[in-house]
Amino acid sequence: MQLASSGSEPTVSLQSDAKVMGLVGLAHASSHFSHLLLPLMFPIFIRDFGWSYSELGLLTTLFFVVSGVGQASAGFVVDRLGARPVLFSSLVLFTLACLLASVAEGYAALMAVAMLAGLGNAPFHPVDFTILNQRVSSPRLGYAFSVHGLSGNLGWAVAPVFFTVTGALWGWRQAFVAAAGLYGLVLLVLVLNRSVLKTEPSARAQGDAGVANDLAFMRLPVVWWCFAFFLLSTVTLAVVQNFSVPILKALHGVSLELASMTLTAYMLCGAVGMLIGGFVAARWPRWSDRVVAACMAGAAVLMALCASGLFGQMGTLWVLAATGFAIGVGGPSRDLMIKKATPKGATGRVYGLVYSGLDVGFALSPVFFGALMDRGLYQATLLGAALVLLFSVVAALGVGKRTAVPA
User: Fold this and answer.
1) Are 307 and 379 in contact, with CB atoms under 8 Å apart?
2) What is the rounded distance in angstroms from the CA atom of residue 169 to the CA atom of residue 149?
3) Of 155, 167, 327, 310, whose CA–CA distance to 239 is shortest?
4) Alpha-carbon torsion 192, 274, 59, 122, what sign?
């Protein structure tokens, strides 16, 4: 099977492309699953250890600081060594993090879990997009990005169900052991299909000229506009992931189970949106920035409506789920928008830097919004998240302005 470059005509069958998409999607789902390893246990940690939301939010911040720094660096490693060995190493780190969490007795141990899992999470976007851009035929990339985003949302959606069920059956420590087994199974599947995941390292000049070429992409303003978009849009997502359950309980008096189901519904609606967004991205690739801006603006309005409580208890739960759908529709167009801003031969480096904005957003959000939560400012937390999402609209349009093809 020939590698399919981003600018070539299709040289592989749909079946071959679909296999690549499926394997990369499985890997991406495992990455998103790791984002919730600790946040889903926050209510239990508060009960058993008496920690505050700010202290627990710091664990999430630590995870994404390590992931962000690692992601920006991982792009260089992926470009030089190829994506496959880096991917396998990440899954080993996830397994170790889960096993450590299962025996953790204090805050220091959980900090170590956050660092291990963050390091494992770091390479996924440069790994995934390097594989997709090299192994999937160019006309099918819109669909590949759709599958990639959809699988990530499914990873988020599965995590609450997985830990709720395994925790109820065996306890929270055994739930982490089960998660370690799940990561081991994913690693086995990818190793058995390793030939499908092979990528070619980028050509690189030697000496000082090589270093300069490696870093040249950082001088492009559009790369930093992409970084800003990911940072801003992720701040809102982090609020939903970390605090939507206690916010729904406090504002509307819903049970822990119903609030957790709403978070799962948000992720599932986001996955459905990703699926539809793949067709949108394939149909209007030139307008990817405008599609993203429209979706983010719509989601910001919906989140503000959630904060208002205008629709009552059950209505608010449905509106929050619809917010996930709006963001999901823009996902494939977002990835296409980043691809248009990526210089040839720098996929790993650009995606590593740009997607580290996602980690920065995840790291900053719990610190600021956790402080609001500790003061009982639940509505202000949702309204602040909606406002930040509106700022991401400006960043998306800024990217589009700098990648527009003259008529």
Assistant:
1) yes
2) 31
3) 327
4) positive
Alpha helices in 36-52 (DSSP H): 42-49
DSSP assigned state of 8: S
Residue with the two structure tokens 């505050």:
52
**Residue ranges per domain, the chain?**
14-196+205-403
Report the chain (407 residues): mean pLDDT per 10 consecutive residues. Answer: 44 80 93 89 83 81 85 79 90 96 90 94 88 83 82 84 88 93 96 88 51 64 86 88 84 80 84 86 84 94 89 86 92 82 70 78 83 88 93 89 61
What is the rounded CA–CA span in Å between residue 59 and residue 116? 12
Amino acid at 137: S
Q: Tell me, what amino acid is at 207?
A: G
User: How many other CB atoms are found less than 10 A from the CB of residue 214?
Assistant: 18
Token reading at 212:
């300069």
Q: Is 76 within 8 Å of 125 (Cβ atoms)?
A: no
Nearest residue to 30 (alpha-carbon basis) of 181, 202, 155, 159: 155
Report d(CA 374, CA 124) in Å as an integer.
33
- Nearest CA among 251, 380, 374, 381 for reference residue 317: 251
pLDDT of residue 71: 79
C-alpha separations of 224 from 7, 296, 357 in Å? 24, 19, 9
- Write out the DSSP string of 200-229: PPPP---HHHHHHHHHGGGG-HHHHHHHHH
Instruction: Give me the architecture of the 14-196+205-403 domain, per CATH.
Output: Up-down Bundle (1.20)
116-120: list long-range contacts, CB under 8 Å, 24+ apart.
Answer: 117/34, 117/37, 117/38, 117/63, 117/93, 118/62, 118/63, 118/64, 118/65, 118/66, 118/67, 118/70, 118/359, 119/66, 119/67, 119/70, 119/93, 120/34, 120/89, 120/90, 120/91, 120/92, 120/93, 120/94
Q: What is the pTM of this model?
A: 0.72
